[in-house]
Specification:
Layout: H1 2-18, E1 26-34, E2 41-49, E3 55-66, E4 69-72, H2 73-76, H3 94-107, H4 133-146
Antiparallel strand pairs: 1-2, 2-3, 3-4
């Protein structure tokens, strides 16, 4: 009987620990300065945490000035002009690569496994070859606020 009680207690403990929230429910925003391209821009991460403490949505963007008008890289979409440019990407436009990073954060419930190289890039995110150090910092800031 004692072994059954101990086994039941252990199973209960495991199940309860699996229900522990990783983050506090809410919407959290983090920012970081991005000086890529000779401009001081702001990288922003808006992260949604559900009532179970899980990351359910990630929205990443960076301010950008094009032709003297301040906008965001996502707003520019294909007009950002990174894809196919001689010094740009052959993988996809900026917003497409950032979508891969957003998906990575949700799938991995954070950035703990994401390592950046000396150029601010990572091999861990399939489909994302852009410099992400400022976005990483913005994500980290938002998730730090969401910690229990």
């Amino acid at each position: 009987m004692r072994k059954k009680f101990c086994l039941f207690g252990l199973i209960s403990l495991i199940l309860l620990s699996g229900c522990t929230k990783g983050y506090k429910e809410g919407i959290y925003t983090g920012t970081a300065t991005d000086d890529y391209g000779g401009q001081d821009n702001t990288a922003t991460a808006i992260i949604t945490i559900d009532s179970d403490g899980k990351i359910t949505d990630v929205d990443l963007d960076t301010t950008y000035t094009k032709d003297g008008v301040q906008t965001t890289k996502k707003t520019l979409g294909d007009d950002y002009g990174m894809f196919g440019h001689e010094y740009g990407s052959t993988l996809g436009e900026w917003y497409q690569q950032v979508e891969a990073l957003e998906k990575y954060v949700i799938d991995n419930q954070g950035i703990d496994k994401l390592q950046l190289d000396d150029e601010g890039k990572s091999d861990a995110v399939s489909g994302c070859t852009i410099k992400i150090d400022a976005l990483y910092e913005a994500i980290s800031s938002a998730l730090e606020q969401a910690k229990k």
